[in-house]
Design a protein that fits this description.
By secondary structure, the chain is α/β, with parallel strands linked by helices. It has 20 helices and 10 strands. Helix 2 runs antiparallel to helix 11. Bound molecules: adenosine-5'-triphosphate and magnesium ion (MG). Magnesium ion binds next to helix 12.
Length: 587
Amino acid sequence: MVKLTSNKDDYHLISRLWTNYIWPQKRTLLFALLFMALLAATTAAYTFIVSFVIDEANSLTKKNNTIKQAQSYAFSVLPLLIFITATSGLSNYIQRILNNSIALKAVTKMQKQMLKSTYNSDFGSFKQKKSGDIISKFTNDITVVSNALIRTMSNLIAALLTIALTIAAMLYQNWQLSLIMTVFIIAYWPILSISKRMRGDAKNVQDQIGKITSNLKESFNNMRIVKTYNLEILENKRLSKNFDTRERLQMKLVTEQARVDPILEVLGGLAIAGVVIFGVYQISNETASAGSIAAVLTGLLILSPKLRALGTLNNVGQEGLAALTRIFNVIDEEANIQDTSRSQELIKLNGEISFDNVYFKYADGDLALKGVSFIAQPGETVAIVGYSGSGKSTIMNLIPRLYDVQSGSVSIDGHDIKNIKIKNLRNNIALVSQEIILFNTSVANNLSYGNDNANMNDIIHAAKQADAHKFILKLPFGYETVLGENGHGLSGGQKQRLSIARALLRDAPILLMDEATSAIDSLSESAIKKSLKDFKINKTIIIISHRPNSVKNADKIYVLDGGNIVETGKHKELIKNRSGIYFKLQN
Ligand SMILES: Nc1ncnc2c1ncn2[C@@H]1O[C@H](COP(=O)(O)OP(=O)(O)OP(=O)(O)O)[C@@H](O)[C@H]1O
Ligand SMILES: [Mg+2]
């Protein structure tokens, strides 16, 4: 766990932010600095203008001037004022754009790195996380960091420069009076201690937002069940509680934050009062001009919002660092399943799959496979049957290395799959998974997903093989019909046929079908089986089912029970064993 208030961790976070995300933009940064300096200089110049205007006016009154003199005075001040305000406004505009661009480029880079790392991460560890929480890191945490960066650049650097130059200008014009401002600096200590505490609060708020996103996503996905089971009130209550918690956590944070402003305000008021009292004394003593006192007051008015911005900036910074920690945690996630120096480039595999004494256990479960061994040859259709939970899908998960075996080995063409480049391995596999995966795009795009080279003829051919062509033509726009989220608008069997067509289109040497026809009527199923017969030449097909009828024609059938293969043979042989699981599954 990252300790939230450790200065060393902060130092690492900030230095990583600087070296990887800010420094690479040094040219923009240099220009931004230039315009921030210009902004600071023109702002500090106001104190000189004020003192000049007042002292000149004073001397004019003393000289019993003519109206003409007064006019020429006004005309000399006016262009100066216009020049200064115009320069100040323009530099403010440019520095703001440059700073925003630096911050946005930085967070876009973070988002891309997060995305890459999320896709690279192990399937198992990804599945253990809540997708809503991950999404909120891409959206909420990124916004927090981006705001913090923009405000740090615009406020911290620009404000510090303005503060330094204004203080210098004030000291130059009336140093005794200006020393009163030290009060401000002393006031910074209690504010720093407040913001340290806020860091933990900020992280709690962000975690809670992640939780809300993930719970909402989950609940909305399950709307069908929620409605048919009358769970609306329960879901409302459950989710509302999350909002309440967020409100409470956020309130805690803003209550801390709110303390900063009034403290600074009171201190500012005290400083102005001090200047007025001491200033009157100086004027009566004739140790200072009215102009210089007005200059110090102007300086204080310039400083006050800048110092306040610095105070609240600390809050934003603390929130930003908390979000940055969450973001870097995603970027730093290491994948266990990845290519090593031993990984071989094997572009085209024949597809001889061999499981040798494979043991496998999910991170948070018992052993799902306990010494499974079998072989599937090219040109063969191998079926795996068994009760629910016996480990069938687990076998499928191991072949494309969604998970790695704990002991034993899975090999293809005699190579342990751990020694085949993952990209090559997966390019040689087509999968129809038990959960149907369709995207919110056209039927044609859904079928060609993962099959970049497929043209329309190939797509139609695959759809015909999967007995999907006829129903696709009946859709409002045929192959161009856009499907709803996860195939909304299609029946279960139609969705399955699209998944099968997509897998067939891939034309890979290994075809894995996990309960691919469970929702398809027998007529359609036998049509698909007929196509598979033509398709399977030189291909290895593994079919999972708990219905022996769907795998009757398989060349080999393995019956799985509790993670062990307990029966092996062809349909005709297996069905004879009346006490066997295969026979029982039939009935
Ligand atoms: N991601 C997971 N994390 C932990 N345990 C899991 C996970 N997936 C499956 N299991 C467990 O592993 C065992 C085998 O599951 P598997 O999905 O392989 O069964 P199956 O034979 O495909 O069942 P079904 O016919 O219902 O699809 C089960 O006991 C299951 O609870
Ligand atoms: Mg399964």
